[in-house]
């Protein structure tokens, strides 16, 4: 089957079987490897994308259900060399160790700050409860997002 | 593969009647795990998450495609509490009440709430129209329901006199991203206390002996509360598996029931 959707501001088409995950199609069909494939059961958040306004795990979205959807992946956060404020905050605070979870944190942060520019610490912690960093580098990430919330105030 | 993205119920019911082998897809948080990890290859899928009728939510009727993210903000206290404990923000943005009911996992977090409210599952088919199935007839075994092959779950319906005083608690190994070891809903209505539990039997259950004892008492002393815990622990039918043991689940069932009875009494 053919699925058409709006991806990172462009109209895209994918020829698929239908039951594949959105994550598989992003990575294998559309060569967008920013969304990471780790747990494939919605536990780790490294494949987070914004689908019709919701932050979801793209590994749990069936591609056949994406017809007409609007999707933002990590490649659509920021504009080329111009970083999004959440990316700059992570960079400034050194919030990257191995980097595998980083795209998921960037997408979740972009979604959080788009909906709530000044989240408090409890809100930040809860927003990231579905993003796992196996390096346990949460401290720097929390400082990055708390600092960004302060800058917005 | 045949994929129908239904935007209204009539389309979903037509597809269900015409493609009996097709699977229903709502948020995908169960079905896609099977696809990804069990190499399950659906031959047909009917997507229902964007069905207008299934997204409706009003007092006493929760459309099957209403997500946990929406239910977190509702006025039914125990329902909002349990919704917030499900998975992560990403899971709650996708997962639905109807999907929880359809999967019928013993650990489904929404199920003890339906049992405590004496709720029903509303289902529809093209040939036979709509029917309401009481919760204890809908859930018949581990991941088994009485949904017929041509039917679609349309809503969870609760009676007009469903108790407003209601509390939820769950035990798991951590706060986020955890499947319940034991979950419990206690509600207090005009007919007295109701105690429902999840993950401690093949289906959600009511602790009816504990309820009867509790509702026969004129006042709730510490002694009565201890007896509630003892009866609940005796009444549940848990198993030992990779998440916990039978004996721990029995113990935790009694502790949670007692704690929630106390909270409802104070409400």
Instruction: Give the proportion of residues in helices of chain B.
Output: 25-40%
Which class best fits the helix and strand makeup of chain B? alpha+beta
CATH architecture of the largest domain in chain A: Roll
What's the β-strand tally of chain B? 14
Main sheet strand line-up of chain A = 2-1-5-3-4
Coarse shape of chain B: globular
Largest sheet: spatial strand order of chain B: 4-5-10-6-7
Number of strands of chain A: 5
CATH class placement of the largest domain in chain B: Alpha Beta
- How is the quaternary structure best described? heterodimer
The end-to-end span of chain A amounts to 48 Å
Number of helical segments with 4 or more residues of chain B? 11
- Portion of residues within helices of chain A: 25-40%
List the helices and strands and how they pair.
The complex is a heterodimer of chains A (153) and B (267).
Chain A lengths: L1 E6 L2 E6 L6 H8 L18 E4 L2 E4 L12 E3 L12 H9 L8 H14 L5 H7 L10 H15 L1
Helix pairs in contact in A: 2-3, 2-5
Chain B lengths: L1 E4 L3 H10 L4 E3 L5 H7 L6 E4 L9 E2 L2 E3 L4 H4 L5 H9 L3 H6 L2 H7 L7 H6 L3 E6 L3 E6 H4 E3 L2 E2 L6 E6 L7 E7 L10 E8 L2 E7 L6 E2 L1 H9 L5 H14 L10 H21 L1
Parallel strand pairs in B: 1-3, 2-3
Antiparallel strand pairs in B: 4-5, 5-10, 6-7, 6-10, 8-9, 11-12, 12-13, 13-14
């Amino acid at each position: 089957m053919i699925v058409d959707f709006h991806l990172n501001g462009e109209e895209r088409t994918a020829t698929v079987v239908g039951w594949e995950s959105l994550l598989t199609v992003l990575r294998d069909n559309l060569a967008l490897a920013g969304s990471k494939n780790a747990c494939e059961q919605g536990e780790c958040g490294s494949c987070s994308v914004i689908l019709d306004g919701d932050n979801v795990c793209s590994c749990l979205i069936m591609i056949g259900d994406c017809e007409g959807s609007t999707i933002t992946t990590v490649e659509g956060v920021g504009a080329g060399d111009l970083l999004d404020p959440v990316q700059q905050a992570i960079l400034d605070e050194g919030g990257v160790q191995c980097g595998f979870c980083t795209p998921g944190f960037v997408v979740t942060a972009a979604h959080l700050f788009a909906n709530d520019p000044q989240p408090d610490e409890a809100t930040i912690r809860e927003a990231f409860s579905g993003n796992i960093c196996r390096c346990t580098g949460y401290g720097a990430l929390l400082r990055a997002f708390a600092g960004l919330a302060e800058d917005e105030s | 593969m045949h994929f129908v993205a239904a935007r209204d119920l009539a389309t979903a019911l037509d597809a269900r009647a015409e493609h009996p082998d097709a699977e229903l897809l709502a948020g995908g948080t169960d079905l896609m795990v099977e696809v990804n990890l069990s190499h399950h290859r659906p031959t047909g899928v009917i997507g229902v998450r964007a069905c207008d009728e299934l997204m409706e939510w009003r007092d006493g009727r929760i459309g099957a495609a209403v997500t946990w993210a929406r239910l977190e903000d509702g006025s039914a206290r125990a329902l909002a509490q349990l919704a917030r404990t499900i998975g992560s923000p990403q899971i709650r943005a996708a997962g639905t009440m109807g999907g929880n009911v359809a999967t019928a996992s013993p650990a489904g977090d929404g199920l003890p709430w339906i049992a405590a409210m004496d709720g029903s599952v509303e289902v529809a088919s093209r040939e036979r129209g709509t029917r309401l199935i009481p919760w204890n007839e809908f859930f018949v075994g581990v991941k088994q329901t009485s949904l017929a092959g041509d039917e679609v779950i349309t809503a969870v319906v609760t009676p007009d006199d469903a108790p407003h005083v209601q509390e939820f608690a769950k035990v798991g190994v951590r706060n986020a991203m955890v499947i319940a070891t034991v979950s419990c809903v206690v509600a207090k209505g005009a007919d007295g206390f109701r105690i429902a539990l999840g993950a401690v039997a093949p289906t959600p259950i009511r602790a009816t002996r504990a309820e009867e004892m509790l509702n026969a008492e004129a006042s709730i002393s510490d002694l009565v509360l201890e007896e509630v815990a003892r009866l609940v622990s005796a009444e549940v039918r848990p198993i030992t598996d990779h998440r916990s043991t039978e004996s721990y689940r029995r113990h935790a069932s009694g502790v949670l029931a007692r704690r929630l009875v106390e909270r409802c009494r104070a409400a």
